[in-house]
Amino acid sequence: MHEHVTQARIDLAAAFRWAARLGFHEAVANHFSLALTEDGSRFLIQPRGRHFSRVRASELLVVDADGRVLEGAGAVDPTAFHIHSAIHRGVPQARCILHTHMPYATALACIEGGRLEPISQNALRFHGRIAYDEDFAGMALASDEGARLCAALGDKPVLFMGNHGVTVAGASVAAAFDELYFLEKACETQILAMSSGRPLKRVPHAIAEKTCKQWLEYPDLAQLHFTELKRILDQEEPDYAD
Ligand SMILES: [Zn+2]
């Protein structure tokens, strides 16, 4: 158990560091969390006010379902607690939850009827796997907003939060981070394609379904990706694992 939690801390810290390198962070807002218990009632999250590029494994907080900090120094951000706690408890298979305002995905969330279109190989990974919430109601400062977002996500790994950003859920940090990475790449391609003013070239439904299946069955893609990112961090900024 102890070793498991140590590795969980290192993985989540690596996700923060790499997200910062990719420009997925926003000031000291946005949050990543990882469930430590089966029912999601206890999870790791960063202390309030910490920049993604400075997060260390050992300083991640352990928080319970009531928002109490059980381990670590510092406070948990209230909006982060409402969103992450509700999803960890309501969707227990969502072990790792990554919430960002990353630029291209957020741009798409701010377009009337904005949908990830089946126009690129990367986008097809998400075919039928995205939930869209259109009912932005201000910052998530109350628990009912967390419950609403949890219901909107359902069993999908990706939630587009209209007028706000995205939330990605996965079975592990590696799985969720890989989804986050490819989601932003797919959104970037779509926004660039839309900016040409030319018609989008949509792939037929059957091809989209086939390609999505190929993505999901591709062996070890997320794990290989994330392992390599950690190797680079081990060389270039090893204090993430402290
Ligand atoms: Zn947000």
TrEMBL record:
<dbReference type="InterPro" id="IPR036409">
    <property type="entry name" value="Aldolase_II/adducin_N_sf"/>
</dbReference>
<dbReference type="GO" id="GO:0016829">
    <property type="term" value="F:lyase activity"/>
</dbReference>
<protein>
    <submittedName>
        <fullName>Aldolase</fullName>
        <ecNumber>4.1.2.-</ecNumber>
    </submittedName>
</protein>
<dbReference type="InterPro" id="IPR051017">
    <property type="entry name" value="Aldolase-II_Adducin_sf"/>
</dbReference>
<dbReference type="InterPro" id="IPR001303">
    <property type="entry name" value="Aldolase_II/adducin_N"/>
</dbReference>
<dbReference type="Pfam" id="PF00596">
    <property type="entry name" value="Aldolase_II"/>
</dbReference>
<keyword id="KW-0456">Lyase</keyword>
<comment type="similarity">
    <text>Belongs to the aldolase class II family.</text>
</comment>
<feature type="domain" description="Class II aldolase/adducin N-terminal">
    <location>
        <begin position="10"/>
        <end position="191"/>
    </location>
</feature>
